[in-house]
C-alpha cells in the first residue's frame, strides 16, 4: 500500500515569527516536509538576502527537510490585472521568488491565477488574456532556473475550480504541469473536494488540507468546519495516493492545530508518514 507524506505550511506562522523560527518549530515537532510562505515579515522574496537563505538552508540540511514549494501571498500580487504595471510587478515578484526557491533547493514554485473580476464577469476573458501572457513569462523563467511551476486553485482567481485548471493547462500546452489542490479553496466556491480531487488525479502534486464553513473561504483547524475529511481520506486511501499532503492551517496556535489536524486525519482513516 502506498502511503502519502504529510507536511506542514508555514503560512500559519507568517505574522508571528520569521521563516527560520517556523521551520525549526516544524522540524522539532517531527515534520520533514515543509512549504514556505514567502511574504514579509515572514520571508521577503523581493530582497536577495544571502545570510537569511543560508540560515534557512542550514536548517533544511540539519533536519533533513524537504522544501516542497515557495508561495507568494495572493494579497500581494495580481497576474490578471487590467493594468500592465500591476502585472509586471507580479511577474517580477514571481521571478524573485523563483530565485529564492532555487537558492533554497525548493522542488516547485507555487503560482496562482490572479484575480477574477468579482462584479463584472464579462471582463474575465480579457483578464485571462493578460494572465496567460504573464504566466508564460513566469514559466520561461522557472524552466531556466530549474524550479518548475506547480499551479494552485484559488477561490478568488480565474482558475478557481478543477475544471478551470484542466481547461487552462490543456489549452495552453502545460498538460504535464502538476497541481496543488486546496480542498478549502475548492469548498469556498461550492466545489465538492472529492470530485475535484478525482478529476485532477493524474495531475496532483500536493493536496492542501484545512477546514472551513460551507461557502466561506477559510483555512481553519481540521474538525472546526464542514469539510468531509472522512470522504477525502477514503478517496486517497482507495486510490493509493502516494504524493504529498500539506496541512495549511491559519490559527492563533498554528503548531498545536497542525498536530491536532494530523491526529484527526488518522482518526478518519488517512494513513501517512512524516518522512520527507
From TrEMBL:
It comes from the Bacteria. Pfam families: AP_endonuc_2. InterPro entries: IolE/XylAMocC-like, Xyl_isomerase-like_sf, Xyl_isomerase-like_TIM-brl. Residues 23-266 form the Xylose isomerase-like TIM barrel domain. This is Xylose isomerase-like TIM barrel domain-containing protein.
Amino acid at each position: 500500500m502506498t502511503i502519502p507524506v504529510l507536511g506542514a505550511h508555514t503560512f500559519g506562522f507568517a505574522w508571528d515569527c520569521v521563516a527560520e523560527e517556523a521551520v525549526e518549530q516544524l522540524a522539532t515537532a517531527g515534520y520533514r516536509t515543509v512549504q514556505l510562505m514567502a511574504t514579509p515579515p515572514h520571508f521577503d522574496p523581493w530582497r536577495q538576502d544571502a545570510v537569511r537563505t543560508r540560515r534557512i538552508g542550514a536548517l533544511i540540511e540539519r533536519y533533513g527537510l524537504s522544501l516542497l514549494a515557495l508561495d507568494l501571498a495572493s494579497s500581494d500580487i495580481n497576474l490578471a490585472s487590467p493594468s500592465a504595471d500591476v502585472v509586471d510587478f507580479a511577474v517580477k515578484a514571481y521571478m524573485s521568488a523563483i530565485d529564492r526557491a532555487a537558492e533554497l533547493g525548493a522542488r516547485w514554485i507555487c503560482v496562482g491565477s490572479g484575480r477574477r473580476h468579482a462584479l463584472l464577469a464579462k471582463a474575465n476573458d480579457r483578464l485571462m488574456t493578460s494572465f496567460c501572457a504573464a504566466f508564460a513569462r513566469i514559466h520561461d523563467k522557472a524552466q531556466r532556473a530549474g524550479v518548475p511551476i506547480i499551479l494552485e486553485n484559488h477561490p478568488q482567481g480565474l482558475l478557481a475550480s478543477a475544471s478551470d485548471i484542466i481547461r487552462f493547462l490543456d489549452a495552453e500546452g502545460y498538460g504535464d504541469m502538476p497541481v496543488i489542490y486546496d480542498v478549502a479553496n475548492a469548498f469556498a466556491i461550492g466545489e465538492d473536494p472529492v470530485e475535484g480531487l478525482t478529476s485532477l488525479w493524474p495531475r496532483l502534486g500536493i493536496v492542501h488540507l484545512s477546514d472551513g464553513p460551507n461557502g466561506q473561504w477559510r483555512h481553519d483547524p481540521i474538525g472546526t468546519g464542514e469539510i468531509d475529511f472522512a470522504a477525502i481520506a477514503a478517496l486517497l486511501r482507495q486510490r493509493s495516493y502516494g504524493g504529498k499532503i500539506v496541512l495549511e492551517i491559519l490559527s492563533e496556535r498554528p503548531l498545536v492545530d497542525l498536530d491536532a489536524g494530523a491526529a484527526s486525519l488518522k482518526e478518519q482513516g488517512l494513513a501517512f508518514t512524516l518522512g520527507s
